[in-house]
Amino acid sequence: MPQPLLSESQLAALRGVAELGMINTVVISRPTQVDSAYGDDANITYVTVGTAKGWFRSTPTPVASADVGSLVTINTYRLLLPTGTDIRPKDQVHLGSEIFLVTDTTGESTYQPYLQVSLRRRE
Fold this sequence. Notes:
This protein has one helix and six strands; from the N terminus they run αββββββ. By secondary structure, the chain is mainly β. The chain has one domain (8-121): Beta Barrel (Thrombin, subunit H), CATH 2.40.10.
């Protein structure tokens, strides 16, 4: 039987190191649909599902702009959270006065020293 890449104690040690950088408090909220009295015109509201400490990163990413033929820079937002944090695509993350939408997570990864979340700024 093959040995795993990391033992449970090694993975726990990596999680401990990753969590040292998680200094931002984030509020996670989940969309819920509320129907009107007539069952139409559904409204989406967000309900807070929890808070967590996280490590927020913004990375400038060069992107080719097709309409003007130039290279522009946009920011790619990532949030590192403790493994097992209850967060899903379409959730909102409140970080200070900023709100971001969750586009994806690494929840399916085999080895998780942390949970990485891809974000898009809410506009």
